[in-house]
Design a protein that fits this description.
This protein has 19 helices and 16 strands. With about 575 residues, it is an alpha/beta fold. The protein has two domains: about 300 residues, no CATH class; about 150 residues, Glucose Oxidase, domain 1. The strands form four sheets. The chain has an eight-stranded mixed β-sheet. It has a four-stranded parallel β-sheet with strand order 2-1-3-4, sandwiched between helices. A two-stranded antiparallel sheet has the order 5-6. A hairpin with a 2-residue loop joins strand 5 and strand 6. The chain is globular and about 75 Å long. The mean pLDDT is about 95. The structure holds FE2/S2 (inorganic) cluster (FES). FE2/S2 (inorganic) cluster binds next to loops.
Length: about 575
């Protein structure tokens, strides 16, 4: 097997010439023969002026390079796409698969014996994991780490749970423009990813559980020295993985995915992580069984006391001892023989976990936040292929609720009509948003957190049942049914709902049903137009619309799965 510079030579029809030319050009960068003979460790650069979450990427890269050099490797930094949640139109999820493809192809095209993927903002690590799973190189993921918090008016704030909460207060008229303006300077006080248990924190935690991030790596704040020390060690470990050719598939086993899904339940983590894990698992040839995921939640308590389900922030999870302490708390529910890129088994990691005295971020098994997992999979005539609800972020009295549907045709329809004082809606109604799924609104935007209509918010309504084929930010909260599959745009039952129909949500029995007789539904179904990609669609948008899978399959492009699937998790 070729290694180092000899890997993946450019196809000139003469391998020796290809290597000669490669050496000639790399010498222009000043490398010696001694340096070029070392294992090459690729390091992704996802730093960008558009990405505040990755603001420390240059320092993390320097730390990884130190580690690689110290261990006798040759670090080679290469740029990849960088995605920030607030700077990606129409939504970062629209570009996740592009980042996954681009990262995969750059890892394949350029010679590297291992890769260190530095990511963090919501879609970046999922895209990198998808790429790593497909390329199957030795790989380590280094999260950039979460932001620190600060306060406003003596109140501790966290992005972006408090972004949404305070914006809801502004909409309701309980805080004014000056207050909301002041808050914008306090919500994200340092570089790093959102510091609540949103998508970025959830993905970092499940990546650590999968074994691709060093123990404790998910929670170290972005601006702490320990973040850089761990990045340096990651660089060293990458050289060892390269020398021993320990590929990602050694770590990304069905047992590791089950552990990660278990931890996702235990975190009360982001619903987005289910889509991302489904996509990564499919890249490994494994189908995610949504019902098995739901069943994992039955004996997995929510133990992480972080917003939005709990009270604290990632810095507190770090101070508590991080993910290893959480894993120790549920050790009997995990497969402890799985491996970590540190060279340890999960058993060794949990045995070595150090818990801070008196910490409050990770609950004990006998005093959980919720006795059962935070994420529920619903089925019913409205979601034959499944839907998700984050029970731990919902209003308990609304978990069993029957109400009148008020239908919005699209995200734009929400924008245009939701706050109309003449809108016929009450707090007991069920807001239905459709055509916001993977094909309906390319990228499946995080529009599932439909705001409470202004007139109801001003009357004090804090939560309503909301149902959509969209996603929701991991930092959001409410009684919100998401990822209804199949989506409305491809003829899913959500397309059949009329305003005035009754919808029954029964989370305890995992049901979401449209209370309309089958004959009426059949008549409505017959009038639906089959899905067609709009004629004028070109480029990446066409690729996405023609090939994107539904949410239960991770919204990856259908052709990115391996030729043969191996099983289910
Ligand atoms: Fe980047 Fe929240 S916006 S992690």
């Amino acid at each position: 097997m070729s290694t180092g510079l000899k890997k993946g030579l450019t196809a000139y029809g003469d391998p020796e010439f290809s290597l000669f030319l490669r050496k000639a050009f790399i010498r222009a960068m000043g490398y010696s023969d001694e340096a070029l003979a070392r294992p090459i460790i690729g390091i992704t650069n996802t730093g960008s002026d558009y990405n505040a979450c990755h603001g420390t990427a240059p320092q993390v890269i320097e730390a990884v390079k130190r580690g690689v050099l110290g261990a006798g490797g040759l670090p080679m930094v290469f740029p990849t796409i960088s995605l920030h949640e607030s700077f990606a139109h129409p939504t970062s999820m629209y570009l996740r698969n592009l980042m996954a493809m681009e990262t995969e192809e750059m890892m394949r095209a350029q010679p590297m014996d291992a890769v260190v993927a530095i990511g963090g903002c919501d879609k970046t690590i999922p895209a990198q994991l998808m790429a790593i799973a497909s390329v199957d190189l030795p790989a380590i993921v280094v999260p950039v780490g979460p932001m620190l918090t600060t306060t406003h008016d003596s109140e501790r704030l966290g992005a972006c749970t408090d972004c949404r909460r305070l914006w809801a207060q502004y909409r309701a008229g309980t805080i004014d423009a000056a207050a909301i303006g002041a808050v914008t300077g306090r919500l994200a006080p340092t570089a790093g990813t959102c510091m609540v248990m949103g998508t970025a924190s959830t993905i970092a935690a499940v990546t650590e559980t999968l074994g691709l991030t060093l123990p404790g790596g998910a929670a170290i704040p972005a601006v702490h020295g320990e973040r850089y020390r761990q990045a340096e060690i990651s660089g060293m470990r990458a050289v060892t993985l390269a020398r021993e050719n320990h590929k990602a598939s050694r770590f990304l086993t069905p047992a590791a995915f089950r552990n990660a899904l278990r931890v996702l339940q235990c975190l009360g983590g982001s619903t987005n992580a289910v889509v991302h894990l489904a996509a990564v698992a499919r890249r490994c040839g494994l189908e995610l069984d949504l019902d098995a995921f739901d069943a994992l939640g039955e004996d997995t308590p929510v133990l992480v006391n972080l917003k939005p389900a709990g009270e604290h922030y990632m810095e507190h999870l770090y101070e508590a001892g991080g993910i290893p302490v959480l894993l120790r708390e549920i050790r009997d529910l995990l497969d402890l023989d799985t491996l970590n890129v540190s060279g340890q088994t999960l058993r060794e990691i949990v045995d070595g976990a150090i818990e801070a005295k008196g910490q409050k971020a990770i609950r004990k098994r006998n005093e959980p936040i919720y006795a059962k997992g935070g994420l529920r999979v619903l089925r019913g005539n409205l979601a034959p292929d499944g839907a998700l609800i984050k029970e731990s972020a919902a209003t308990p009295r609304l978990l069993t609720h029957t109400g009148r549907a008020v239908v919005f045709e699209s995200v734009e329809d929400i924008v245009n009509r939701l706050d109309d004082p003449a809108l016929d809606i009450t707090a007991d109604d069920v807001i239905v948003l459709r055509n916001a799924g993977p094909k309906g609104h390319p990228g499946m935007p995080e529009a599932g957190y439909v705001p409470i209509p202004k007139k109801l918010a001003q009357a004090g309504v804090k939560d309503m049942v909301r149902i959509s084929d969209a996603r929701m930010s991991g930092t959001a909260f409410g009684t919100i049914v998401l990822h209804v599959t199949p989506e409305a745009a491809v003829g899913g039952p959500l397309a059949l709902v009329h305003t005035g129909d009754r919808i029954a949500l029964d989370v305890r029995n995992r049901r979401i049903d449209l209370l309309v007789d089958e004959a009426t539904l059949a008549a409505r179904r017959a009038k639906l137009k089959p899905y067609a990609v709009p004629e004028e669609t070109r480029g990446y948008a066409r690729l996405l619309l023609e090939t994107i899978e539904q949410a239960d399959r991770g919204c990856d492009f259908a052709f990115m799965a391996p030729h043969r699937m191996k099983g289910r998790i």
